[in-house]
Request: fold
Amino acid sequence: SSGCGGPLDCEPETAARELSISRSVLYQLMSAGEIRSVKVGRSRRIPRVAVEEYVQHLANRSTDDDASVG
Reply:
């Protein structure tokens, strides 16, 4: 299935595709605590809200960078 349907529906590959990053970069972000993930059985899942929070974090950082220029 494409996209993240339910609250825990994002597999790492899907989340990486949605964020336009590689799977390995996603795992680095998870290791660094930048993106939250949960373990479901033997699988990792990324809560939909964690993807949204990460995008918001990037947007805020971009806004902060823009404000400091000039």
Observations:
- Strands lie at 38-40, 43-45.
- Residues 35 and 52 are 10 Å apart (CA to CA).
